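User: We ran a pulldown and think these components assemble together. Before we commit to crystallization trials, I'd like a predicted model of the whole complex to look at. Sequences follow.
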Amino acid sequence: MNIGHAAKRTGLPTKTLRYYEEIGLVKPARDTNGYRAFSEVDIHNLTFVARSRALGFSVEECRTLLTLWQDTDRASADVRKMAALHLARIEEKIADLAAMRDTLSELVQGCAGDDRPDCPILNGLAGE
Amino acid sequence: MNIGHAAKRTGLPTKTLRYYEEIGLVKPARDTNGYRAFSEVDIHNLTFVARSRALGFSVEECRTLLTLWQDTDRASADVRKMAALHLARIEEKIADLAAMRDTLSELVQGCAGDDRPDCPILNGLAGE
DNA sequence: ATAGGGCTTCCAGTCGCTGGAAGGTCAAGG
DNA sequence: CCTTGACCTTCCAGCGACTGGAAGCCCTAT
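Assistant: Here's a predicted model for the assembly, 256 residues in total across the polymer chains.
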């Protein structure tokens, strides 16, 4: 299976597949003509990475998760720890964004939004 | 006021102040010795930018907001539009993160987290 | 023979800083 | 007067995770 097909199977762009090979996340074989030859295992790994990325794990974390996944002797506690840590980071981000939203929403609500120059948003950003 | 003092006043690192000068966000004068000399207006502008950045606006958006702020003839509608658009982006990010949190939280909850290798989190990432 | 599509590599750019090296400047202390 | 140490300067490189583009090879169909 060459790269275009693998891209369709995994939903990842070809550029990303090449990048993942470059950083050693996948190691597809090569055909005699130099084309990458993705195996079903490669596709499986890539799908796993894609899912993990979609949940916000960094590429390095994905590498670790992938290793854990391939190691049938791993302790589930290790994985749980990583996931819980990541969950906490996500919660934190949400809280940060929610704070931004609240502030910004207040500013927007206070602004008439007409053609007059008086603007509570800018005043707010300037610090009253 | 040289850069170290300006950094303390604005809460921004000196590196960031130099960077902001490089991209033309601020244009501090120079002393005869070549040191940057920040005026009160510079500090005001930097504070404005710092606040806007803290609300998640991109640096380019900050540049625009800064211009609008300095233009006493601007229409508040322009600012409101930018802010509302940004607000929508923030809401979207929050929704994305909330979805991640929910999925991840389910996976974590299903995982015993002991020293056995069976791990619903990895199974979930692998796609059942 | 040629046209097209897909594949290869390599290099540069994104965004917003951040770190570090090499060196100039300044005020205080011995 | 000299040194020390804290400042300041510039320039260059790197982060994460791609993304775009150029130059060129490969393969199939007409």
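The first strand of chain B starts at residue 29 and ends at 30. That may be worth checking against your pulldown data before setting up trials.

User: Thanks, that helps.
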